Amino acid sequence: MRKNKLKHYEKLLLQRRAELLKELGIESNIFLSHQTESSGDLSSYSFHPADQGTDEERRELSSLLATLEGKTIEDIDDALRKIYSKNGEYGKCEKCGNSIDDKRLEAIPYTKLCLECQRKSEGV
User: Are 75 and 110 in contact (CB under 8 A)?
Assistant: First the structure.
């Protein structure tokens, strides 16, 4: 892959990584905050049991989002390592070794599989 393309994908990856880290910081604040802080109440007792369930659901959702974002950040870091290694690994499918289409890399610059291998892995 040419240097200017690698620089372009590096920029995309770094931008996406910064966005995710920012979002993750916001989500982790919600997740780590105490029940009273996240609900805005002055006591730890909700007015109604359903309020407690809603608060707990919100914290669980925040935790799930943080996990998914963390996995994406790991994938972005792997892609950046491939770019920086300069041995031509970036943009190659990890299963078949073929080049990943530019359109796919534009959409998901941290992808590890070409479209065909991705479809096979998902059973489509």
Answer: yes
